[in-house]
Amino acid sequence: MQHPFVLKLTLAAHAANDDASSKAPTVLDPRKEKVIALHRTGMSRRKIIEATGETEHYVRQAIKGVPVDKKLPTSPFELAVAQCYPIAIRGTGIKDYQFRAVMNECYGLEWDAEKSKYKGRCTADQLKRVRERIRDRAEAEGQSAIFVMDWINGDNPVESNTVITQCASNLQDAIQEAVDEFMRVSGIQHVEEGVDLTLARRKQRFAARQHILKLAVKGFSMEPVGRLQERALDQVNQLAGTPDVPGVSVSVIKLHHPEPKGSDAFLDYCEGQGWLHPDHYPEVELAISAAGY
Question: Which pTM value belongs to this model?
Answer without folding.
Answer: 0.58
